[in-house]
Structures are given as C-alpha cells and as structure tokens.
Amino acid sequence: EARGFKVIDATCPIVTAVQKIAVQLENDGYQVVIFGHRNHPEARATVAYTDHGFIIETLEEAQALPHYEKLASIAQTTVLQADYVDLVEVLRTKADHYEDRGRICGWTLHAQDEAVALASSVEMMVVVGGRDSSNTIQLVRVSEPHCPTLHIETVDELTVEMFAGRSVVGLAAGASTRESDIAAVISFLEAIPAAVPSLVEA
C-alpha cells in the first residue's frame, strides 16, 4: 500500500471469523486451544493472533493437558468433524468453564459427506489434490473405510492396471484442485472401458 499497490485480502471469511473468535476468547480470560495441524498456515496464523494460544493435533495431547479454570477450543476449518467432536469430549473434562467455538467450513463438511456417500456406492475412489492439502487428506480418510482409495496430485500417477476388475470408480477433489487436473482424470477414467467414473467436485 505504501508503494501505491491495491491490496486485496482474499482470506476466507470463515477463517477470519475464527481468528477474531480466538482473540475475543483470550480477552475474556480463556486459555485458547486450536485443534489442527501444527504446520498448516491457517492454524499457525490463528495462533499468531493470540498471546498464549497453542495447537494440539491429537486426543492424546488433549488428555495430557492440565486442568484450567477457563478453557476454549476452536478448530482449523478443514479438520475432520468426527475428530473434533472426540476432542471436545476430552476438553470438557479439562476445565471448570469450557467453551466450544469450533467452526468447521460448511463446504468441507459437505464435501466429506458427499465423499462418504460416493465411496459407499463405488468399487474404488480416486481423490485428486495436494498431498499437503488438509481438506484433500480428509476426503481420503473418510473414503478409505468404504473402498480402496487412491490419493493423487495429477493424472500422471494413474495407470490402467490400477483399475483392473473395477467397473465403477468414484472421483473426489480437494478445494484448491485445478479444474484442468480434475478434467484430465475424468478423461483418463472414461478411456478405460470398464470404468464408469462418478464425480464429487470440490
């Protein structure tokens, strides 16, 4: 701005809201805990808005926490809902006054639900997205219990042999996956005579 450039803040409004909640909770005297991945930019940025907040990644870490007078939890917006619910149950026992202020992205929840429904009805899933993408990783996690699941970044990782004996293949994609990458995977699957791809586009 000092050099005359126009700056556009493209931060997701849900993420911005979570950061404001973290600040307010700390101002109200709560120890703030962020459930997420320590190396994820969103979780790290949220912690940076607080003076004493910290990130926890597992139930074991939650169980090891001391008892607080006032404790509040928020969540990285792309974590798995079921994981956060389990965490909340542990944290409730760790404070005299506990506040659950987790806000998981609605798109993330919808995509996870759609992936579960699709994975339950196909013989194999392909999930396209970055290996460091939290929301993509969660799509893989929710799909794996229902059918064999491949996590790829580009179509170049696929071979025809991977789909031997499969007649119906489901496809899901992470939030930031390029449309061209999704289209390339669809074209690949459609070229396999036995594979009939279904798509959950995210």
Q: Please report the distance between the alpha carbons of the first and last residues.
A: 34 Å
Q: How many discrete structural domains?
A: 2
Overall geometric form:
flat
Oligomeric composition of the shown chains: single chain
The radius of gyration is: 20 Å
The CATH topology assignment of the largest domain is: Cobalt-precorrin-4 Transmethylase, domain 1
Structure summary, number of beta strands: 8
Order of helices and strands: HEHEHEHEHEHEEHE
Summarize the structure.
The protein has 202 residues and is an alpha/beta fold. 37% of the residues lie in helices and 21% in strands.
Verbal overview:
The chain folds into two domains: 13-100, 3-Layer(aba) Sandwich (Cobalt-precorrin-4 Transmethylase, domain 1); 106-200, 4-hydroxy-3-methylbut-2-enyl diphosphate reductase, catalytic domain (Cobalt-precorrin-4 Transmethylase, domain 1), CATH 3.40.1010.20. Helix 1 (13-27) packs parallel to helix 2 (41-48) and helix 5 packs parallel to helix 6. The mean pLDDT is 91. The strands form two sheets. A four-stranded parallel β-sheet has the order 2-1-3-4, sandwiched between helices. With 202 residues, the chain is an alpha/beta fold. It is flat and about 60 Å long. The protein is built from seven helices and eight strands. The longest helix has 15 residues, at 13-27. Helices cover 37% and strands 21% of the residues. Strand 1, helix 2 (41-48) and strand 2 form a beta-alpha-beta unit.
